[in-house]
Amino acid sequence: MGTHDTMTVIDRREMSDPTTDALIEAAASDGFSLVQYETPTDHPVWEWRRGDEPGPQFVTRWVALIWMEEWLGRVA
Questions:
Q1: For the chain, what is the domain count?
Q2: What is d(CA 24, CA 74) in angstroms, rounded to the nearest whole number?
Q3: Structural domain contains residue 39
Q4: pLDDT top residue among 74 and 34
Q5: Who is most buried in 12, 29, 58, 75, counting CB within 10 A?
Q6: CB crowding 5-41: b at 16 or more within 10 Å, else e
Q7: d(CA 51, CA 42)
Q8: Confidence class for position 5, pLDDT limits 50, 70, 90
Q9: What percent of the chain has pLDDT over 70?
């Protein structure tokens, strides 16, 4: 592994919005957390993480939020 092989997790909770906050809280109550990190090639990626399971990854936060909204709707 080279020096660029580690992930850097970035907390993006500062982007507060009541609708988004409610969605993130609903996801959290189901065990998910939304994190952003940079890949070894320095590309930002958003990922819904749930425990040790691999999570779906998205290029934008907006798409990640839409995916979670639809996922929560399917399992409700």
A1: 1
A2: 16
A3: yes
A4: 34
A5: 58
A6: eeeeeeeeeeeeeeebeebbeebeeeebebbbbeeee
A7: 24
A8: very low
A9: 78
How far is the C-alpha of 44 from the C-alpha of 47, rounded, in Å? 10
For residue 75, how many other CB atoms are within 10 A of its CB?
6
User: Is 3 inside any structural domain?
Assistant: no
- Asked if the structure places residue 23 within a domain, the reply is yes
Q: How many whole angstroms separate alpha carbon 52 and alpha carbon 71?
A: 19
Confidence band (pLDDT; 50, 70, 90) for 21? confident
Q: Which residues are CB-contacts of 35 (< 8 A; sequence separation ≥ 6)?
A: 9, 10, 11, 12, 46, 47, 49
Range of the domain at 67: 8-75
Confidence (pTM) = 0.70
Give kind and range of the element (H or E) at residue 35. strand 33-38
CA distance 60 to 44: 8
